[in-house]
Amino acid sequence: SEMNIDGLRRSINSVFDHHIADLHQLFQNSLTAIANEMLQVDLISQDVHNEPTVDNIIKEFKAGMLFISEKEKIEEHCIKFLSVLYKMQGPFVLAADKIKDDL
To answer: Per-residue pLDDT tens for 70-86?
Structure first.
């Protein structure tokens, strides 16, 4: 139901809000590469890609969820984000694992 979808979105948003400071630290030296990967999987717009910030990447990820009304598709949206982190390797894998555990 729509209530469950809204609750799922809120839950996912709170996980990202909880990790935002850590994501800032992790992304700071890799923003261009992350933005390239996020654009390839349609998680961000061309505008955010052109001038990426951690906040704008996360905002667009969250905004994208507003247009998804099926639980499975929201899960796919999250998996896309995590797959980008896994692709970045190194400490990004640890971040993806932690976010995945918290979701």
So the answer is: 999 999 999 999 999 99
Which residue in 79, 13, 49 sits closest to 87, CA to CA? 79
Which pair of structure tokens corresponds to residue 27? 């992304």
59-85 core/surface letters (b: 16 or more CB in 10 A; e: else): ebbeebbeebeeeeebeebbebbbebb
- Please tell me whether the overall predicted TM-score, pTM, comes out greater than 0.70 for this model: yes
Residue 37 half-sphere exposure, CB side, CA atoms within 13 Å? 16
Render pLDDT for 10-55 as a digit per residue (tens, 0 to 9). 999 999 999 999 999 999 999 999 999 999 999 999 999 999 999 9
CB atoms within 10 A of CB 28: 9
